[in-house]
Amino acid sequence: MLRFVWQKIRNKKWLIASLLIGNILLVAIAAASPMYTKAALQRMLTRTMSDAAGETNRYPTTAYIYSSSMAGHEGLEADVEKVSNLGQELGVEPMLLLQNRFISNVEWLPELERENGKGMTSRIGTLKEMEDHIEIVSGQMYAETVQNGVIDAIISEKCLVELNLMQGEILSSQTVTAPDGSPLRVRIAGVFRASESDSETGSQFWYRTPSSYNDQLFVSKTAFETGISNESLQEEERAVWYYIFDYNDLTVDNCEAVAQASKDLTAYYREEYYHSYTDYFSDLVDEYLVEAAKVSATLTILQVPIYVLLFAFIFMVSRQMLELEAAEIAVIKSRGASRKQILGIYALQSLILAVVSLIVGIPLAMMICQIIGSANAFLEFVSRSSLRLEINGQVLLYAVAAAVVSMAAMVIPVIKYSSTTIVVRKSGRARKGGAPLWQKLFLDVILLAVSLYGLYSFQGQEEQITAKVQAGAGLDPLIYLASSLFIIACGLFALRVIPLVVKLVYSIGKRWWSPSMYASFLWVLRSKGGGYIMTFLVVTIALGIFNASTARTVNNNESDRIGYIDGGADVVILEQWTDNADMVEDDETGRTKLAYNEPDYNKYTTIPGLESITKVVCEDEATVTMDGMRRSSTVTLMGIHTKEFGQTASLKDGLLPEHFYDYLNVISQRSNAILVSSNFRDKYGYELGQSLNYRDSDGNSARGVIYGFVDYWPTYSATTEVEDSDGTIREVDNLLVIANLSYLQAQWGVTPYQVWLKMQDGDTAPVYDFVEAYNLTLLQFRDQTADLVNMKNDPAIQGTNGILTVGFVVALLLCTVGFLIYWILAIHTRSLQFGIFRAMGMGMGEIVVMLFNEQLYVSALSIAIGIGAGILGSKLFVPLVQLAYVKAATPLPLEVSLAGSDIIRLLVVVLIVMAVCMLILGTIIRKLKIAQALKLGED
Amino acid sequence: MLKLEDPILVAEGIKRGFPLPGGETFFALKGVDIAAPRGKLTILKGKSGSGKTTLMNILGALDLPTEGTVQFDGRELTTMSEKERTKLRRYEIGFVFQSVALIPIMTAFENVDYALRLGGYKGDRRERAMECLEMVGLAGRSSHMPAEMSGGEQQRVAIARAIAHRPKLIFADEPTGELDTNTAITVVKIFKDLCASQGVSFVMTTHDTGFMEIGDAVYELEGGEVISEH
Predict the structure, then answer these.
(1) What was the pLDDT predicted at A938?
(2) Distance CA A324, CA A128 (A)
């Protein structure tokens, strides 16, 4: 039987190859899905941790444990034991376990009296493995053992200064005793600092820096245990541990369990007052889990159309092949083959296909993952660090499931065919096929209606959907499903519409059509073969446009939001200012006025690559007094230099009724002119020309005349959502006053301002060098370029770009293969026809005209409908789909972006594919000998 | 000058070779001489593999011989361009093929009508097409699709299509091959009637010895050579 199947495969190599392509893609996509999702989530988890490390300056995967002998020394001893086995409880082994045992509040007197020597309090303790991580700055390392009743200690440089100690001096304790009951004596043997190799290797040993041990005398473990009396240790000993594990050991699989174990530990330690446990990662993991659920839901939903498309493709191709093989099946059947044997043949064939697709599909899946991982926008790629991909059980499960499903799609239709004998088939052929079942049932219209109903029911719920998304839920699958249904329905609907259009064109010119045109019209109208290729074309194009639009809208809205929030400036900096607040406080007469020391501003102008720069006073806690209302409201006050501000900041066109610059020009006319947010007019009835009293948080006040109202202004949000204590979300209006900076400074003197920078080509790297070179202390720092890069690396947005791209590429591949199959079958089944036409005296040119005209209706109309459906689908559904990506309530109005360049790029790709197909077919037709064709056509 | 009694088709020394995988050439026709009389039925007889279909394809300007000349109505076929031969087939030659060779997406009427369209028929196409279907006795089934007709009916439609644009010569390759005896006789009778009434010339191949007497000229082929002629 294997031989027979092999023979069969060789005979139908084109169709089998197409089936194989469909199968491989299905397996690859199915395997890539969990593989990519996991890799993306892993990247997200690792980034959550590394970001936290950057922000807090603290290694996040750390647990801090404290224990004391306050409830007896046994408790502490038990903890020592417990902590040494903590790895088993947490499920991750530490890369470092810092253990510091000590006695605190030890009172000392220097034995050698000196001028400024006085009593002091410190800790004495031992830090495990300290020897390997220090270098001695002066003096020497402590001795391991107690010598002549004196214990050696080393101290940090900071400790030396703060406790006012001298190297070499001996301290004796008033509170802690040696084993013989005499006061404990300690010699300051040396001063240490962190060894240089430690900072080079990035070791976390000095998680707490040496200078933070500013009151601890370190002694050896032996000295600590043998040099101090048992009573002292029993009563006073304390211990702290830093259990630090590599955050790369925190994986998608174990993070939840580790966080839970850590929370259990926190609860356990909380039960007794003498010890405690704190971790710095379980909150981060919780945050990550919420985000991860959202991301993986979104990524999964986005893949649904790809699966549907692939499955439909495999089903159609296998039907197509069976149609060709129906005669064969019937013959085998007539010769006495049982239904089981026939099924067996097809099962074996599909098994071979399934095995091959598993072998090829899984490596392909890894490639697809890398493609998804490097997508920067729709059909745009950048090189990124490659993903940590693994082939695990889940991946294999998905791949095998996909293979099994496609086997079913290939074998199940055989049941129908295997029950027909040649007699039934021959007589069946004479029957004239009517419209397909789905058309009679108006399935396309029903699908269209369902999708539009979905749209209708979701519209008007944008706010609830946004709130749900913000609360951590992913995109409602129904929204995306509705959009997919819409596209598929359009594809089916095209099958209904295209013949009508052709009929119309045909009947309009009926009298004048040349024989070849006439024949091609009849072909389009009467042959049933072209149906699926039209649907595929429509769906591919529409899906491509929809995907492009979704990706572009999500990307654009997010980058617009970032650009707006960052004020359109590349970098915003607020330096730490010094002031005379202490003097003001001390001065009881109240005569001293608050004054700031302005940091040097000119230094900013030396940043290389600087394009423009401006000072912006931005005060969130300013107030206005509403005239005649006797109450004040919090307002954001912005002080700007109109010209420089216009050059440095930017505002997206179309947000304001007039150009951004016009507003700047308006307030530059008069020093006390101000622009205010529109809610002053809408809520409080202010009008142009009215004046307003406002004051900053230092109490300086000024009066301005309203010269204009704005809905949008760089960095300004008209409303923000505030969560009340009972959990309800409430919208709060934000007020804004924009004044001339020179006026404010003339009235109030110099107050702290932000520096806004615009860099050439948005290259912000020089600013970092600048900040480092001047060693600036910054209160605020916003880098738009970095924010945009971060956004593109956001797993949800990044994965979306990738999956939408892959979805389109798959659709395109299927379309190409479908197109080729359609044509190869058409040539095969029509070669007789071409032979007849040629024998009847039709020239090659006329045949080409005929084919071209067919294409015009089959493909061109499909493409046109596809474009229409894609644009319409985008306009209708993208506003809902993009809600899943809204990070924060965006102050900007939504815009569905659809670049003409996207459509052109799509069309170019489709046209190239078609051209290649036509070229292949052209050669086939050209080689076709008439005499041969007439023979080939014999059924 | 051509005379009425001159044959419509004269083929001399026709050889047709097909390359074999070994680099040798297989000759399906090894030097055939044939003349088809005008307004008469010429029969090429032979078993399967005798080379009769190959010969007919060459005579009908569908294929070119490796050697030899073919004179159609006084014009040399073998030196014509592909375009000229296409034109010849379109206006002056008709075909009825061995297997049923109707255009499956067209009705019986449309099939016949299509030959008229191609032939640039100047008169009323509808009338002529119906007339031709009438001649083969199928006027009543003009709106049927090929798949809805029997083999014999389809063959008759093919004949109607072949004669519709009034070609000078019609080739019929085993037109009776798949038909039962009665239908076969009907078909051949139609040919004879058309020769008499319309003055069309026919060249047909057959392996059926029964039709030998009906032919005005009969050539018997075997192994790519004419072994007898009447």
Answers:
(1) 38
(2) 79
Task: Please compute the mean of the pLDDT values over residues A908-913 and round it to a whole number.
Answer: 80
Looking at A776, A795, A824, which one is the last position of a domain?
A: A776
Q: What is the pLDDT averaged over residues A627-637?
A: 75
* pLDDT surpassing 60 at residue A221: yes
Look at B97 and A515 and tell me if their CB atoms are within 8 Å. no
Q: What is the dihedral of CA B174, B177, B178, B181, to 10 degrees?
A: 130
Task: Give the pLDDT score at A937.
Answer: 38
pLDDT one-digit tens code per residue, B12-42: 999 998 888 777 888 888 888 988 888 888 9
3-state secondary structure chain B: CCCCCCCCEEEEEEEEEEECCCCCEEEEEEEEEEEECCCCEEEEEECCCCCHHHHHHHHCCCCCCCEEEEEECCEECCCCCHHHHHHHHHHCEEEECCCCCCCCCCCHHHHHHHHHHHCCCCCCHHHHHHHHHHHCCCHHHCCCCHHHCCHHHHHHHHHHHHHHCCCCEEEEECCCCCCCHHHHHHHHHHHHHHHHHHCCEEEEEECCHHHCCCCCEEEEEECCEEEEEC
Asked if A836 lies within 8 A of B114 by C-beta distance, the reply is no
Residue with the bigger pLDDT between B130 and B214: it is: B130
- Look up tokens 């506003």; give the residue: A879
Residue A430 confidence (pLDDT): 42
**Structurally, how many domains does chain A consist of?**
5
- pLDDT computed for residue B23 by the predictor: 79
Above pLDDT 90, what percent of chain A?
Answer: 8
- Chain B's closest residue to A836, CA to CA, is B101
HSE-CB at A204 with a 13 A cutoff on CA atoms is: 19
Alpha-carbon span A81 to A76, nearest angstrom:
9
Residues A145 and A125 reside in one and the same domain: yes
Instruction: Decide if B91 and A518 are in contact by the 8 Å CB cutoff.
Output: no
Which pLDDT belongs to residue A939? Answer: 34
Residues from B in contact with A at Cβ < 8 Å:
57, 60, 62-63, 82-83, 86-91, 93, 95, 97, 99, 101-106, 110, 114-115, 117-119, 145, 147-148
Residues A818 and A18: their CA atoms lie apart, in Å, by 8
Contacts of B99 in chain A (CB under 8 A): 937-939
Does the distance separating the beta carbons of A843 and B86 come in below 8 Å?
yes
Residue A284 covered by a domain: no
HSE of A385 in the Cβ direction (CA atoms, 13 Å)? Answer: 6
Q: Are residues A459 and A413 in the same domain?
A: no
Look up the CATH superfamily of B37-64+76-229: P-loop containing nucleotide triphosphate hydrolases (3.40.50.300)
Would you list the domain boundaries of chain B?
37-64+76-229
pLDDT for A102 equals 92
Residue A815 and residue A887 in one domain: yes
Substitution target in A521, A836, A837 with the highest count of B β-carbons within 10 Å is A836
Q: Specify whether A211 is located in the same domain as A310.
A: no
Whether residue A607 sits in one domain with residue A744: yes
pLDDT at A101: 92
Interface contact flag, A522 B118, Cβ < 8 Å: no
Question: Given a cut of 90, is residue A218 above it in pLDDT?
Answer: yes
Domain end, chosen from A226, A257, A279, is at A279
pLDDT at position A64, please? 92
Domain containing A559 equals 432-566+787-939
Q: State whether A531 and A601 are in the same domain.
A: no
Residue A428 has pLDDT above 60, yes or no: no
Residues A102, A127: one domain?
yes
CA A546 to chain centre: 20
Whether residue A614 is found in the same domain as residue A755: yes
* pLDDT higher at A468 or B81: B81
Chain B within 8 Å of A119 (Cβ-Cβ)?
no
